[in-house]
Amino acid sequence: MSLKYITPAERFKKYLPKDYVELVDYGPFGKTQEEAGPGNMGQFKELVEEHPMCSGCWMAYYIRLIFASLPNPEDTVTLGTAGCGRLAISQAAVPFIYGNYGDQNAMASGLTRAFRLRFPDKTKDVITIAGDGGTMDIGFSMTMHSWIRGEKFTTIMLDNEVYGNTGGQSSGMSPKGAVLKMAPKGKDFGKMPATELARAAGCVYTVRMSPTNIKKAAKIIRRAIFVAREVGPTFIHAYTSCNIEYSIPTHEVFADAKAQEKDRFTFEEYMTDEAKEVIERVEAEEKAARMARKAQKTEAVN
Amino acid sequence: MYYVAKVNADMCAEYKCNTCTLYCPEANTLMFDKSGNTSWVDVDRCKGCALCVYVCTDMLNRDCITMEMPNVEAV
Ligand SMILES: Cc1ncc(C[n+]2csc(CCOP(=O)(O)OP(=O)(O)O)c2C)c(N)n1
Ligand code: SF4
Ligand code: SF4
Ligand code: SF4
Ligand SMILES: [Mg+2]
């Protein structure tokens, strides 16, 4: 997709749905992060539309943040699988591909390769966004093999430590002892070491975090995307609680995410030397562009 | 209907803050009006979670948001 593709002819606008027109006029396409990014959500039309995820769902919040952080929304494709997250991801103004359960990283491998063959001069970002069950249980082999093959795209795991969408079965990512509706005796083994597995399989950039700090979480999402473009597979393991299955009162969801930052989701960032080079270069370029825009603005005022 | 968030615009405008709008789980729901320096709620989209109340009251100690029953007309 490109910006041109979504822009309607002026005379045709009045026949289009309001949300669509708002997206064209006030959306983030073609804009900088300062104009329409995570720091000013609530002041532009966001890519994510109304969706049926539960009230107060922290996973819905993180999905909102992912879409606001995209460096290149008009040339991005997301892939997902069954689970709560896809209910919102599929409502965003970014092409979304939904296959059989757990095959998102296999599909993304083919798509990434096809894009590079078909559009060699263009940057197209491919991101898989799936739950802990979809990524580490049922989709495990396809996740691991995409990393082992060194496929250049980003994998984001929305870890709510349960199968939320199907009513509370334990997953490989549920913590030891977790008592869930369909694990009434408590889970009897611990969380799978997701980021360690990712590194062993060849991911060149991995992060584990509880996304409570918007600026930091957005920076990580962008880093994972930039590195995947050039170096290899990248992986973000994010805590995105399920207030329903873990009985967290909705107004305490943020406090719970902060508590998890000190517990199972302490911040951990790993990058290879090559990944580090890309991050340093891109962030220096972004900073220079920001400064140039600022200087231009002050000049215009004076 | 159910309780939804309501921003006290006069109180909120004193802070020029835009923090709650960043943490609402719903996109295009808790908005910020830059000219009036106040956040506002699209009641049709608010799911009543009160996460914004946690941000304004518990985190920032400001109490500008309350959960209230909206006036809805029967159709
Ligand atoms: C092949 C297949 N098996 C089972 C299911 C049923 N199913 C739907 S979502 C889901 C698990 C979701 O768990 P997770 O990936 O952690 O996502 P969450 O809903 O917790 O975000 C399952 C087992 C399915 N859709 N397809
Ligand atoms: S079931 Fe849990 S993860 Fe799924 S939408 Fe509801 S709160 Fe979010
Ligand atoms: S957090 Fe409170 S003071 Fe800040 S914008 Fe929201 S309502 Fe206003
Ligand atoms: S109550 Fe929840 S959904 Fe409604 S505006 Fe506040 S944070 Fe958003
Ligand atoms: Mg899950």
UniProtKB/TrEMBL annotation, chain B:
InterPro entries linked to this entry: 4Fe4S_Fe-S-bd (IPR017896)
Taxonomic lineage: Bacteria, Pseudomonadati, Campylobacterota, Epsilonproteobacteria, Campylobacterales
Protein name as annotated: Ferredoxin oxidoreductase
Species name: Sulfurimonas sediminis
Domain 4Fe-4S ferredoxin-type positions: 3-35, 37-70
PROSITE patterns per record: 4FE4S_FER_2
Highest taxon listed in the record's lineage: Bacteria
